[in-house]
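Ticket #4471: structure output looks truncated?

Reporter: J.K.
Steps to reproduce: submitted the chain below (528 residues) through the standard prediction queue, then opened the result file.
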Amino acid sequence: MREVVIIGGGHNGLVTATLLAKAGLKPLVLERAERLGGCAITSDIGPGFRCSTLSHRAAIDPAIVRGLNLVRHGLEIVPGDALTCSPTLDGRALTLWADAQRAAGDIAVFSTRDASRYAECLASVAAVAAVLRRLISAPAPRIDSPSAADLLALLGAGRRFRALGRTNAYRLLRWLPMPVADFVGEWFESEPLRAVIAAGGLLGSFLGPRSAGSTAILLLLAARAGHLIDPGWTCRGGIGAVADALAAAAREAGAELRTGVEVRHILVGDEGAHGVALATGEEIQARHVVSNVDPIRTLLGLIDPIHLAPDFLNAARNIRVRGAMAKVNFAVSALPRFAGLRGLGDNDQAAAMSGCMRLAPDLDSIERAFDAAKYGRFSDRPWIELTIPSILDPALAPSGQHVVSAYVQFTPFELRESTWDAERDRLGTIVGREIDNYAPGFERSIVARQTITPHDLERQFGLTGGHIFHGELAIDQLLAARPLLGWSRYGTPIPNLYLCGSGVHPGTGLDGRTGALAAREILKTIRG
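Returned output as attached by the reporter:
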């Protein structure tokens, strides 16, 4: 009998496996796909072109990078000079450089007032992010019977909060329920700056800039790195290199990793979970089962409902997983030439495009794209975040050519008047045309295109509802309420069954924190 079986070889599953293996438990990881990584994979999109298939940026917790020796296992982070660049349709561009002083110079072209306030905004957000970072770096506190460790963690966060001072403490309390449009409106007056910042609170969520609570998402994601603009980083070989390094670390620690293995259901008996049944009919017995797939797929798909109480089943069915993002990857014959960057030399243009490019002229255009999604459509003018990873890693494309990775926000999982199979090509065409509006000639340069719809995210990658975070990041689905009140500590009502994916606290994307926290709590439970 196995000690631990982990369902799913995504990044959190691999982090959990490595930490459990380091503790001597020798876990077995079962991945349905033919390769490990989940959303952190790199694939071929044309002869000689390789692109990050889904996630195009990562933000693995530096403590995990160090603790698992990921650099020794081949991870090579390649940060760019820019955090984001936002071209405008009138032929200008706002670049927020990693160097804040340089960024302020770019902002001053649009507003000298905004340039003067930028540093203060960054400092204030960094201060409140330190409080939130304490919360996402520890298990969510128990509501009914907090332990001494819970109280100590809350005390630490409380001390951080008191250290903020009156101004920032008041700001944090006000900001959390605010629409992100109001947050950026309090700080800045220029639309490009408002839009590029607000976008950070919306990616992957079914929220518009004027939706209450969207500032909380912006701040939660900013807490990962302590910076208002946190697009994460890319690495040599594409984001699949993250999974490769995690897999190497897991194997070295003693975990066994199997791919092409589909778990059909979790075996449950009188004493709780005791293994898994595979699609082939094989059963693998285990003392503990850990699921890296989303909570709905785990609790409502892999478990016979007879093992769960009706109230719990009803609550689980109400977890919101309305996906709102599609992905389009392009192989192009030349580096896109954005009109707003034409005044720069080749090296400076490439530097400006080395971070994320956010194509949204203003908050109203983002809100209109969200309006379409609310009524089961996607906009003919979507807002797009794209990266060009081949700028930092030329080996991803043939010499002089490039790959472009584009998130397309506000593409609803369910279309009211059509299907995604019918709309796939139209979506890809619309995205190419929209990029061409900012970078004339882009459409002519396309060599190959890969379009991944929200339904593909569910069918091919196992993301229920096509939701990249395994569940909506919203105030009522965070911290102790993620995935459900009373079940945020990685356990489930079924003894010996645990969750370690992004649907559990903190659920902040491709950073590995959920997997690390889950491993810690599972070890405590196993060892008493």
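Triage note (M.O.): checked the attachment and the full token line is present. The first strand starts at residue 2 and ends at 7.
Status: closed, working as intended.
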